[in-house]
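The data are quoted verbatim for reference:
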Amino acid sequence: MGRDGGGVRPASSSSIEITFQYQGVRCRERVQLKPTAANLKKAEQHKAAIEYAISNGSFDYAATFPESKRAAKFVRASSNQNIGVYLDEWLERKTPKLKTSTAILYKSIIRSVLKPYFGDLALCDLSRKVLKEKLSDYQVSNTRLTSVQTCFRSALNDAVEDEVIDSHALIGWSYRKKEEIKEDDDIDPFTREEQQALLRASRGETWAQLQFAFWTGLRPSELIALEWGDIDWIAGEIRVVRARTRGAKTPESTKTPSSRRAIKMLGPAREALMKQKELTFLAGKHIFLDPINGEPWKHAGYIYRNLWMPAMKKSGVRWRRPYQSRHTYASMMLSAGENPMWVAKQMGHKDWTMIAKVYGRWMPSADVGAGGRAEALFGDNGSVMTASPLEPSISLG
């Protein structure tokens, strides 16, 4: 193709031809240089610069080859570009960089929400007023709205970075609906008696997985990705470094950076692991297996069908979903008076604000004597007097 097969060759006595791939099309363009050895070298460098610009999304065909007839076929995206078209192109570029579960979620959001509601608009016509009007008709919870806007914001941020638009309406802003206060929410942990009923209704591997879930607070996707090499028996810790989500062919990184953690192996969790060790330690690296086929769990959804439903039906316990085992762990720890910061770290939260927001109802009852020690120490009948906030305490010695 060229003097070294790299897509550069003399085209005439006064020009050099460069060949490259752009948007799946093989392109040939000429530069007006005599095909001397030095100019061929320059052409190779020019081709390398073009390919680098293509790889990072900054290549502008018309600006690089202004007189090319082919340039009209590759009009660079502008602020007038249709949002639906842009989202399709963006997702195709973005998918290789996303976790499988996130890519599947974004594809669903774009197909079912963003394109139907915003697809016919131009990027430059998207405003906060338009977002409010469109999303006000989308009858879902604020949690779902957050997911939709996270996807949209990511696409629009890339449009700004690629200089397709200068700014966008979702920078520093989110649309939320006023929601009625719910009498009940999804936090519905199992009582001690309910846990015991579930465990009595389970045997072998099912028993071990249930007890381990109750006493570690792991997300189901984290639990099924655990390997024996993640257990530090000496330090008494369980290393959570991966998760297996729906759609992923292999385990991926945890939900967030803070989800990558080492949690304390409490006694009941150790007991469950020792029982499980008899069943799967020599079978391979995975700790917990699907009891139906003895294979590693494909994704957490199978827990619902193959493990959870049989145990719930046999126990007679009021129905809840498997994720409630994580809520059960949090409520037990907080009700027992464990430090909320420690509980947050064990569960993989960035800080304890989520613990306070979601599980706050269990915190006041964490210690029936809460406040008593301070009252005894600093109250009217206490043996220690407090200093004025404005003056240091003075010893009358």
